[in-house]
Please model this.
Amino acid sequence: MGKERIEQSFQEKQAAGQKLFIPYIMAGDGGLDILEDRINFLAKSGVAAVELGIPFSDPIADGPTIQAAGGRALANGTSLKAVLDQLQSFVAANTAVPIILMTYLNPIYNYGIEKFVADCEKSGVDGIIIPDLPMEEEELIAGVLQEHSIAFIRLVAMTSPKERMIEIAKRSEGFLYAVSVMGTTGARQSHGANVQDYLDTLKENSPVPVLAGFGVSSIEQAHELSAHCDGVIVGSRIVELFDQGQDEEVRKLIQGSIEVGVRR
Amino acid sequence: MRKSSDLLHLLKTIERMIPLTTYTMPDETGRFGSFGGRFVPELLMPALLELEEAYEKAKNDPQFTEELNYYLQQYVGRETPLYFAKQLTKEVGGANIYLKREDLNHTGAHKINNTVGQALLTLRMGKKKVVAETGAGQHGVATATVCALFGLECIVFMGEEDIRRQKLNVFRMELLGAEVRSVSQGSGTLKDATNEALRYWASNVNDTHYILGSAVGPHPFPKIVRDLQSVIGKETKQQIVEQTGKLPDAIVACVGGGSNSIGMFHPFIKDESVKLVGVEAAGAGIDSDQHAASITKGRKGILHGTLSNLLQDENGQITEAFSISAGLDYPGVGPEHSHLNETGRVHYTAITDAEALDAFQALSRIEGIIPALESAHAVAYALKLAKEMDTNQTLVICLSGRGDKDVEQVKNRLEGK
Model:
């Protein structure tokens, strides 16, 4: 459960010479009843964990693709409670792959922090990512997550000064989420030249694995970034491919990305 | 018996006064009691810390104060009059009514008090670009204006629905050299324009300052905007004492995000004899689902980087706000207002579209002053309150803006369109 399950999954992938790949999918996009199949499909494709987004009306860290997916999910009635209930119906009994929830703060604040964390545990959630909760405000939930041994995955950004990067890395559990663009989620032509230095710095200083996310949409980009860290998180591209029904392309993207370690 | 209860009352009064005489909100983490804070992506945190440092330095620098005062006086046209509304007072037949004439500022509203200060901060931080959000366009115009004045590049995000409703303000901003970007996401209104401005800021934070238009958002914005708008309350305090020899008995101001009201209230917070009233927009009715009364009807939550009262559904999704007045049409409110509501220092109430429309016409007819629809909410409540007060008492209304921008909308509404 929780932290250990993420660590274990990462170690298995790395022992097999693979880079880590975490896809982001929007819970409720396409309906909640397809969630189990989708998670199993991703697990079989070789992902190290699944990042499951909770839709929110005002997602300030997200670009157009994920905003639109969240809009679709909300339009078909998806709520945090419905997602947790759905997960409970299958994840608790199924250990195919670690589940990490990505949610803005307000839906969980509204749900009640204690109740949310307790229900996450019941639903087999292994980690939490909250994009609008910086270090200065994290005591709101950090202690409660600790009690339930759910990994509290911190985000670090290219604007963070070095001492701050190190402090964030030290606190992060499961892995460190390295936001690798200046801006929101969504496909980019390329990452800045300084992204490599940034990832190298994090890699040198982080006691947990470092995964690069935001703006990663191709196997080439995954290779480029993975060379400087432990793997990548891909969101908008995966969301887009699933929305277009191109599941096979999703599988290819994952398998092409994780093979980096073997080629090197 | 009587004596001990008097003593108890006295003790309670003193107890209530202690926190007020030491009112130093927000604390260093940006908290106003249990409200406020900095709930933003890590990407923006360094910029908030930089802004906080730059602001604290500027505040203690006499040169900054001098420069700010120069522009407020020579460019904005301060101080604004505190006008005794004799006709209105006679018509109502209660308290003596005074109007703090923020409508006479350059660009027609209080918004420019904030944008002048923040533009000077932008220059001090060595940034060359400014981004802003706007609802009806008042803050956008005030921002575009100071950007023209100080040679800053300016991008304003505005909801596509608001752009349709406020074509002239879009043209004004463009005339002033700003680029207006249409926001079609979500409901295409102020809330969504704010999301887009935050996203843009995250992508361009190294060379861009975000001039937030109200006393909302992450720390230090609620504090900076309040301090810059406090010129309203400071002037009022001096003017009312000069004119009447005493503090006012009541002050009424409208609350959307709450910048004009917090600027008016803040210098009076410690003066317990002054009743402070914040007026929210009740839209179609406070018990309908079409209003913008975040304090009266909302619940605690986090939006745009701050913990405050919000309009939200049972799942924590932010709901749309409704008001005839675009400037009050926001589903959140500044965290300091939520705090002042919780402590009871400020009383919050709400006025409907219909009541605001009546007040809009009444002030135009009786005093020859066309108020902004936002300010008309304060006028509407003040008229009710003044009627219940004695003729030797005084009441100040913060007339936050002029109503020229609303004339067409009011015409259509009155003609039943």
User: Anything to note?
Assistant: Chain A has a mean pLDDT of 94. Chain A touches chain B at residues 56-61, 63-64, 67, 71, 74, 79-81, 104-111, 131-137, 154-161, 164, 168, 179, 182-184 (CB under 8 Å).
